[in-house]
Write a structure and sequence with these properties.
Radius of gyration: 20 Å
Helix content: 25-40%
Number of helices: 5
Number of domains: 1
Mean pLDDT: 79
Number of strands: 13
Largest sheet: 13 strands, antiparallel
Order of helices and strands: HHEEEHHHEEEEEEEEEE
Structural class: alpha+beta
Low-confidence stretches: 1-41, 279-286
Distance between the termini: 20 Å
């Protein structure tokens, strides 16, 4: 579920936007000028439509196969690359679940051990029990549960319109809503991120999301803090009746692990060759 996990992080970064960080009440008004209720209503309507469209797209995404290129760079204190790994994988569907088939790592085919491990995981997924299926679907649902919270967690402002990749889009700016009480697994991050969201005027899909961390926060099973200034950008492409799927995700993050080790990472994920999978328990890539 790499694509969803990383998209979610961007969305939390931007929208916590790293993703929809839809918008904020940052428009400046002259003293005594009354608030523009029509503009505010329009912004919230756009945000609401975009969240609904994203939920539909993320549901539809489960039926697509695609190729992923995952480039991860570890940086030194001066922002220079210390090391780099590049994985290219083909994502297929097995019993309704997305499965990652490693094609190459750093320009080389998978090792014998990597191939053996992949084959074992594939066979296990093919023999998934009903109980395992229930657990997997519940986890998928939890990973998407933050979407409905966005409209409560953020304030929205329509700041203009722009053309992105040939498509006209609303531009929304999102800032945390004062007094928002976090719910769920990711809600606590919402107050620590803000960003901009480009919403397609035709289908309300997210064309682009750009957000950054404004306050450090802890995350993960280990004691790690994502540092202020970490940034994520999500770019999407529209396919098949308005379904919007990730095209590129770029995240640059700084973190402190166990309050000691500093970690600076730049990660770029690129997606291509989307195909609507054939029906059946084992949908292979085309």
């Amino acid at each position: 579920m790499q694509i969803l996990a990383t998209s979610r992080m961007v969305v939390l970064l931007v929208m916590g936007a790293s993703a929809p960080a839809l918008v904020a009440q940052s428009a400046r008004r002259s003293p005594g000028q009354p608030p523009d209720h029509t503009s505010a209503l329009d912004a919230r309507q756009i945000a609401g439509e975009s969240v609904a469209a994203t939920e539909r797209s993320w549901q539809a995404r489960r039926h697509y196969t695609y190729t992923e290129r995952d480039q991860e760079r570890r940086l030194d204190a001066h922002g220079q690359v210390k090391s780099e790994d590049v994985d290219v994988s083909r994502m297929i569907l097995v019993n309704g679940a997305r499965f990652e088939q490693l094609v190459e790592r750093n320009g080389q085919p998978p090792s014998t051990e990597e191939s053996r491990k992949r084959d074992a995981e594939l066979e296990k997924l093919k023999r998934e029990t009903q109980a395992e299926l229930v657990v997997r679907l519940r986890k998928d649902e939890e990973n998407r549960s933050f979407l409905p919270e966005l409209l409560q967690a953020f304030d929205f402002q329509l700041i203009g319109e722009e053309i992105v990749d040939g498509r006209l889009a609303y531009v929304l700016h999102a800032t945390p809503h004062p007094g928002y009480q976090a719910h769920g697994k990711y809600g606590k991050m919402f107050s620590k991120v803000e960003g901009k969201l480009w919403v397609d005027k035709q289908n309300f899909g997210w064309i682009k999301v750009d957000g950054q961390v404004t306050q450090s926060f802890s995350t993960g099973l280990f004691v790690a803090r994502v540092q202020r200034g970490s940034r994520g950008i999500l770019e999407q492409t529209c396919v098949d009746d308005g379904v919007c799927l990730p095209k590129r995700i770029a995240v640059r993050a700084s973190a402190r692990v166990l309050f000691v080790k500093s970690l600076d990472i730049e990660r770029i994920l690129s997606y291509s060759d989307y195909w609507l999978a054939a029906d059946g328990p084992y949908a292979v890539a085309r």
